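Q: What structure does this chain adopt?
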Amino acid sequence: MTRLFNDPAAFADEALEGFAAAHRRWVRPVTGGVVRAAATPAGQVAVVIGGGSGHYPAFSGLVGRGLAHGAAVGNVFASPSARQIHSVARAAHGGAGVLLMYGNYAGDVLHFGQAAERLAADGIDTRTFAVADDISSAGPDESAKRRGIAGDLPVFKAAAAAAEQGLPLDEVLRVAERAGARTRSFGIAFSGCTLPGADHPLFTVPEARMAVGLGIHGEPGIGEEALPTADEAARLLVGTLLKELPEDVADAAGQRAAVILNGLGSVKYEELFVVYRKVAALLGEAGVEIVDPEVGELVTSFDMAGVSLTLTWLDDRLEELWRAPADTPAYRKGALGTPEQAPVTTQVQDTAVPAATAVPPASDASREAAATVLAALDAVARVVDAHADELGRIDAVAGDGDHGIGMRRGSTAAHRAATDAHGLGAGAGTVLARAADAWADKAGGTSGALWGMILRSLGTALGDQDAPDARRVADGVTEASAAVRRLGGAETGDKTMVDVLVPFADALAAATAEGLSLTGAWDRAATVATAAAAGTADLLPRRGRARPHAEKSLGTPDAGAHSLALITRAVHGALLDH
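A:
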C-alpha cells in the first residue's frame, strides 16, 4: 500500500514537485507537468506525452533528449485536463508543431483531443496518437478499443527519436502509427494496488490465484488462473503474444523484436530476471531475435503485484529508432553529445493562459441566480463527498475504483471556483463557466471532461444578463446532454452516465413545457434519473474501462450514472431552499 503521503488529494501535485526538484538537470516544472530543462530546438517537432499519476516512470520520468519534450501529468489514475495538456504543449513547442501521445483511455482521448483543438486555435500545428497495445482489453477486430499499457514506451520512443532526427510532424506521426501497429502487450497480476489514503486495494486476487489480462489503473483482470511458477508465467506471457502477430508479420521465426518485461510495482527486479530468463529462451526457440531488451519498472501501477510483457516487432527503421540514444531521468540509452545548458529552476513556470480575476458585467437578476447556482454546487459537493466511498466501491466492480475520488476532487474544486467568482460579482453563466474549468482541471479523467462540459453548457444557456427561467435551464440541460454524447461518443444503453442524463434532460424539458416551475420540473426529472440509474444494473458496458469486464458489472449500476442521479436529487434540495 501507499504509506507516505500528506493529504491524499495533494499527492499527485506533491509527487510532481518532488520529482522536478530531484531531476532539474533534465526537466523544469510548468503548469500541468514538466518539459525538458532546455528549450525544444527550433524547428523540431515536440512530442508531448501524458496521463495520470501513479505510473512512474511514465510519464514525467520519460522527458529528456531522445524521448519526450514534455509530459502532462494528471491526478492519480486520472488523465490531465485539456488546460494542463495545452499548457505543457505550449511550453514544449519549438515551432514545428506538437504530437500529443497518450494511452487509449476515454478520459485521455477526450482531454488530449480538446487540447489539440485549443493548440490549433493558437496556430500550433498539432496531431494526436493513442497507444492501444493491450491485447486482453479487446480482440484483434476491435484493436482500436484496446487500452495502452507498457507498450507506451516503445511507441513514444520511436516517435520521439524520429522528432530528434528533424522529421516533419506528419512523418513523426506516421512513425508513431507504425510502431503502434507493431506493438502488443499482455499482463498478469497477483494483487491490486492501494491508492494514497485508501485502506484496501482496488481489487483482490484469491489465495494461490492470479488475475490474467490486467490494466494499469487497478482494473481487475479479465480472468483468473492458478498461481504459476516463474517459468509458467513466462510461457503464458510469450505464448499469448505469439498467437497474435501484426498483420504484416506472417511468422515469428526470423523476426526481430524489442522486448519489455515490465514490473507493475511490487514484483522486484530479481523476480523479473527469473521470468525474463525463460522469456528469452522461449522467444529464441520461436526464432525471434531480441533487440535491446528492457527488464524493470517502466509503466507501474503504485504497488500492484504484477508483470506485463511487451513485444514491438521491428523493421529496419523501427530498430534504428529503438536503438537511438536517450537521456531522461528514468530511461537512458546510448550516448548523446553535451546538452545545451539550461537555467536551473524549481519554480513552476506558468504557461497556462491566465485565468481572469475580473468577471464580465452581469445583471442584478443574473447575480441573484448565481447565488442559487452556488448553493446547488455546494449541494453537489456535499452529496459527492458523502457517497465517495460508495461510488468507488461500485466503480471497482468492473473498473478502476477511482470514480468517487475523482468526483470529490472535481465537485470540491468547482464549488471553490464558483465561490470565488460569485464573490467577484459574477453572473450565473460565469459562475458555471469557472466551475466547469475547475472541475475538469482537478478531476481529470472522463468524468472531469464530461462534467466540465455539462456545467459549461448550462452556463452558456443561462448567460450573465437575463434572469434564468425553467425553460432556459431545461434548454441548457438538453444541450449538455447532446454535448456529452458528442464529446464522449456514448449513447443510451452503453452503461454510462448518458443512460441517466438523456432521460433526465427529456423529462425536464417535458415538465417545463407543461408549465411546471423549475423546482417541480426538476423534482419529476430527478425521480426519472434515479430510476434510470438503477436500471443500468441490468446493462452490459460497451464503452470505457469497464467494457473488458462486462459480465462482472451485471447487477451493479454504473458509477457515473449513479453519481449523476444523486446529484440531480441534491440540486433539487438546493432549489427548494432557494
